[in-house]
Amino acid sequence: TVLLTGELGTGKTQLARAIHENSPRRDGPFIELSCAAIPETLFESELFGHEKGAFTGASVRKLGRVEAASGGKLFLDEVGDIPLAQQVKLLRLIESGTYRRVGGVAPLRADFRLVAATHRDLRKLVFDGSFRSDLYYRISAYPVQVPTLRERREDILLLADSLLSRLHPGRRYHVEEAARRALVAYDYPGNVRELRNIVERASLL
User: Fold this and answer.
1) What residues have CB less than 8 Å from 120, skipping those under 6 apart?
2) Considering only CA atoms, which of 94, 134, 132 is closest in space to residue 110?
3) pTM above 0.85, yes or no
4) Which residues are bridge partners to 199 per DSSP?
5) What is the pLDDT of residue 105?
6) Hey, how many other C-beta atoms are within 10 angstroms of the C-beta on 146?
7) N or C: which end of the chain has fewer CB within 10 A?
């Protein structure tokens, strides 16, 4: 289990994909769930799925992200935003390797590797009582601190060239020396996401 931590926009999702693509499970699915974007009432259904008739509006059986990730990786983005009441269910899944769909009875066997990411200080959340300490220690078996862009200025021009080629495939752009110096000197509070916006805006203008 890998825990990626770092500021917003540092590229944690891309790193999670790179971990998957270089793992023995590279041929399996890479399933992502943004924990910050899911309402608490739907979190369990999104993660585990639900049976037909489990609740109002559940007209068909739905597979959850855990089941969809079978044989591959499950990436939980912004894991620090999981509501406290739902954290115990994730902990039980990790510890037992089994789960039940909402409205289901029979336990199902999970088969995935977990990568989690957050921009929050989970140690502080544990101290404050808003994140379970046992869950923290389960998901942080291999913690990776993703550095900010200002901490790796040697990557800025490489990233700028790569972003230009992705934004405009087939077109060649030349970044003048003055622009290159300005790119390297900037601190990027928005990290790689902000660099992408700057490069895109410059190419459009």
Assistant:
1) 78, 80, 81
2) 94
3) yes
4) none
5) 82
6) 19
7) C
